[in-house]
Write a structure and sequence with these properties.
The chain is of the alpha+beta class and 405 residues long. Helix content is 56%, strand content 19%. It has 2 domains: 183 residues, no CATH class; 177 residues, no CATH class. The longest helix has 44 residues.
Length: 405
Amino acid sequence: MRIAATLRMALRALRRNKLRSALTALGIIIGVGAVIAMVGIGNGAKSQVEAQIASLGQNVILVFAGNWSSSGARSGWGSAGTMMVDDALAIAREVPGVISVSPEVRDHQQILAEGMNWYTTILGEGPDYLDIRQWPLQVGAMFTDQDVRGTTKVCIIGKTIVEQIFPNDDPVGRVLRIRNIPFKVLGVLAPKGLSVMGTDQDDVVIIPYTSEMKRVSRRTNLSSINVECASQDFSDIVQRGISDLLRQRHRLGTGRDDDFTIRGQQEIADTFTATSRVMTVLLGAIVSVSLIVGGIGIMNIMLVSVTERTREIGIRMAVGAHGRDILLQFLIEAITLSSLGGVIGIAMGIGSAKLLSAIAGWPTLVSATSVALAFLFSAAVGVFFGFYPARKASNLDPIDALRYE
């Protein structure tokens, strides 16, 4: 019997019991819809983290001060206090593959301007910092090497500072005070939003690192060093070069721990996306259970259908149908149920993902790969769980089937 005729016969059989067919496909619909929605949410979270990592810039390597220990006493990460400006200058000068370097001093201070005040992050940076971070200015200009050498009292501010301190005015050319020291605003940064740690990147005032060290915090060591390498391919080489150089400069002999920590951009990305990847897989695995339950429902209904249509099967065999025709008919019915359920489930999953994104504000990303895999999986469920009932129907004895009441 031709496949087209078998398909028409299978569809007629499904139409005869519309409600039962719909309820049978419901398990597949819910399962596929849940998989699409959950994986979409997981992928959305992952893409958001990746976008935040990308906001660090391209091919960025971060060098932090490490921990400190002496005579058995140990202090935490970032407390070594051995990272100096000369270290940053040496990295820029001696490590192959390094394009730009910005020494960084991080501080938190209350700022004041025009009767307004705000507690914010103060970053002491070099003039290449915005190029390293690929952070454009919305208006104004960045301070220069001459400003760094002269410890000039100038600054660049983020969007949040504008909203809190200069809500109705153009801030460029205005003066804000840090520890009662006047700093002239040279420019406003383009908004960047939240960082990978969930902090507001726009809540920041950037000043020359020399001005921060000599005028504001009065410290001699750096918090960290921002390094940009030529390409991602050079990242490992540059990290090894920085490590060797700093160990030599800090006189760390064999067997002594580093008093610094180096993190590449890919390493940071892997760290922060690992959790979202695990959650995506876990959610997908959990909701996939409903697909198995839906497949069991299909098997159950198909077995019932074989029992109900035993006499019909006997008549078909008596007029010349072969066992493979009966097998193909029931298998097509099972595949049709699961495939239609998969299509409806995909539509429901995409709609649910968009609804969650609109209502809860969660980022969602439904990929074509996840849609294709969900559909193929639903069709495979129909084949797997439909084969046994179809096989049972094809193995019926025609005489016994005709006698069945």
